[in-house]
Amino acid sequence: MAEERYIPPIAFEHQYKGIWYPGVVLDSSIDRMRTFQVREDDIWIVTYPKAGTHWMMEIIGLILSNGYPDKIDRSLYSSAIEMIRVNQKIPRSKEEEQEHPIDWSPFMDVIDRAPSPRVLLTHLNYDLLPQDLLKAKVVYVARNPKDIVLSWFDFAGKNPALPLTMDKAITKMMNDEVHWGPWPQHVRQFWELRDHENVTFVLYEDLKKEPAKHIQTIASSIGRPLSEEVLDRVVKFSHIDAHRETFKKMAESGQGGLVKGSGPAGTFKFINKGVTGRWKQHFTVAQNEAFDEWYKSKMADTDLKFTFE
Ligand code: A3P
């Protein structure tokens, strides 16, 4: 009989220490991160959701596997590490979480046993991450917030339990209510760290424009500079069309769960359009003006500049 797969209720939202999270992120999984055992040879992909997380996972995976998508070790790839990927009943309220705490050990065992280099993914902001995070290699991906809002709307908006309109998605961004917290703080904290020897700060828009150049920079930053031949393959297979094909195959074969019984990669639509400036077809003039005002108030005093076109 086919094994029944447990799909967690991503619709359930809750707030912890002033930040909104989906139901697959628990208070206890956030708290746990401060004492997480970081390894020096870990590679951490840190992003605000919808900034190109899965694209970077594929790029790093390809770099580590000589450019062959079917050779990527995806054992830790099914989700951000603060998300639940254990086949247990997920609490739907703070009270339930206290009454029936999640047993993290199966999840942590998988991570503890994983061979180096581990590729770990998180959306948590810097303050919530392990204190010695920067002893590992960190690749931070940033993307212009208008395309992030649209991507989030596309991803979560049709979920009947949320549900989002474009207007609501934009307002939530401006009110710091998007899951995983305020976007300006998230990007600015890592921008401040950009010169740290273990941090590589990548802009989604730059990566779109000049993939080979930025992929080589990322590869060198994690100590894996690429030959031209391998670089060509990484560029080819991380292109959205090839990436979509890879995901399709993985989803069809049910591959990608972190622990037995967890959801297959590809269950959720992480590969959408993959272009810059799509927000222009979806923001009204009034929404755009309000957003620009908000953006200016949060970002005018930083030299971090985004491409919106
Ligand atoms: P859009 O919804 O704008 O198309 P995340 O992985 O952080 O959830 O980000 C999802 C966004 O990254 C989506 O953006 C998705 O299409 C885009 N993306 C995924 N794979 C990509 C790739 N190979 N190249 C470019 N963009 C990609």
Written account of the structure:
With 309 residues, the protein is of the alpha/beta class. It has a single domain, classed as P-loop containing nucleotide triphosphate hydrolases (Rossmann fold), CATH 3.40.50.300. The protein is 39% helix and 9% strand. The strands form two sheets. A four-stranded parallel sheet has the order 4-3-5-6, sandwiched between helices. The N and C termini lie far apart (50 Å). Residues 1-10 and 257-268 have low confidence and may be disordered. Residues 47, 49-55, 147, 151, 154, 238, 240, 243, 270-274, 278 line the site of adenosine-3'-5'-diphosphate (A3P).
Q: Low-confidence runs (pLDDT<50, min 5 residues)?
A: 1-10, 257-268
Rg estimate, integer Å: 19 Å
What is the overall shape? globular
CATH domain fold name:
Rossmann fold
Structural domains: how many:
1
Secondary-structure class? alpha/beta
Compile the SSE list and pairings:
Elements: E1 13-16, E2 19-22, H1 27-32, E3 43-47, H2 53-64, H3 94-99, H4 105-113, E4 119-122, E5 137-142, H5 145-156, H6 166-174, H7 183-192, E6 199-203, H8 204-209, H9 211-221, H10 228-238, H11 240-252, H12 285-299
Parallel strand pairs: 3-4, 3-5, 5-6
Antiparallel strand pairs: 1-2
Adenosine-3'-5'-diphosphate is lined by residues 47, 49-55, 147, 151, 154, 238, 240, 243, 270-274, 278.
